[in-house]
DNA sequence: ACGGTCAACTTGTATT
DNA sequence: AATACAAGTTGACCGT
């Protein structure tokens, strides 16, 4: 749990996480916010720019000292080219080993920690999207099942209203000796399914046959 | 002004 | 113990 005001000051944990080397955008089609972006990146220039893939902690502390330790690191925006390469890499593998991470970091002029963070966030985004899609699918399923449930219920009502003759009651031993194809009970109305050929029974027979992994129940 | 996006962060857990 | 990752959070930035 991140505590406001304590963020990143406790950088004792794991990684150094310091603003990346600044980037002059090579994206070109920046649009409106580009001037701000350049300013931000210029600010980043004041940050440690060197360190070939190495992390260092001291300077973050220094940067914080300057304004009383309350400053959060200026936000980096990856350039379009960086994002493109990261996405391309992500398409190939969703996880990187340290070697791949380092190589990609060098290629992108980022720290390997930044590449790592990007992949973590990217995986998280993918998962969120998948979950959303799954949710939509389940909603649709729920809708159609509800609809079918209503339809079946009204069908049952109609059948009851028709006063269908009572089912033929057979002694248990007789039932056992009969082939299953000639003895299939509909669990809804508990009538022998061959007695009527409504769509209700047809649906049930189809379901039943699918559930037990056979062909259509006659 | 406000909500969405996203890089960077913290924390907890699994694996080696 | 070290490492990697997921989950959740934060805050800067951006479009409206």
The main β sheet shows up as: none
Q: What is the CATH superfamily of the domain at 80-162? A: Homeodomain-like
How many E-type strands? 0
- Residue runs with pLDDT of under 50 for 5 or more positions: 1-71, 175-218
Quickly name the level 1 CATH class of the domain at 80-162. Mainly Alpha
General shape: rod-shaped
What percentage of the residues does DSSP assign to strands (E)?
under 5%
Question: Number of DSSP helices?
Answer: 7
The multimeric state of the shown protein is single chain
Which secondary-structure class do the elements indicate?
mainly alpha
The CA-CA distance between the termini, in Å, is: 61 Å
- What is the residue-mean pLDDT, rounded to a whole number? 61
Corresponding CATH architecture of the domain at 80-162:
Orthogonal Bundle
Region (Disordered): 1-75
Biased composition (Low complexity): 8-23
GO molecular function, one term: DNA-binding transcription factor activity, RNA polymerase II-specific
Family: Belongs to the HD-ZIP homeobox family. Class II subfamily.
């Amino acid at each position: 749990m991140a505590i406001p005001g304590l963020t990143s000051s406790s950088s004792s944990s794991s990684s150094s996480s310091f603003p990346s080397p600044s980037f002059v955008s090579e994206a070109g089609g920046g649009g409106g916010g580009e001037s701000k972006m350049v300013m931000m990146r210029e600010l980043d220039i004041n940050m440690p720019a060197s360190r070939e893939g190495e992390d260092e902690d001291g300077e973050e502390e220094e940067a914080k000292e300057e304004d009383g330790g309350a400053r959060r690191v200026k936000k980096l925006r990856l350039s379009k080219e960086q994002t493109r390469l990261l996405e391309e890499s992500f398409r190939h593998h969703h996880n990187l080993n340290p070697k791949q991470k380092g190589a990609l970091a060098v290629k992108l002029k980022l720290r390997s920690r930044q590449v790592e963070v990007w992949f973590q966030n990217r995986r998280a985004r993918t998962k969120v999207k998948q979950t959303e899609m799954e949710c939509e699918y389940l909603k649709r399923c729920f809708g159609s099942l509800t609809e079918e449930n209503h339809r079946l219920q009204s069908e049952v009502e109609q059948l009851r209203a028709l006063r269908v003759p009572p089912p033929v009651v057979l002694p248990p031993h007789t039932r056992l000796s009969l082939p299953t194809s000639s003895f299939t009970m509909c669990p809804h109305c508990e009538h022998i399914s061959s007695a009527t050929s409504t769509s209700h029974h047809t649906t049930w027979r189809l379901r039943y046959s699918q559930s037990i992994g056979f062909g259509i129940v006659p």
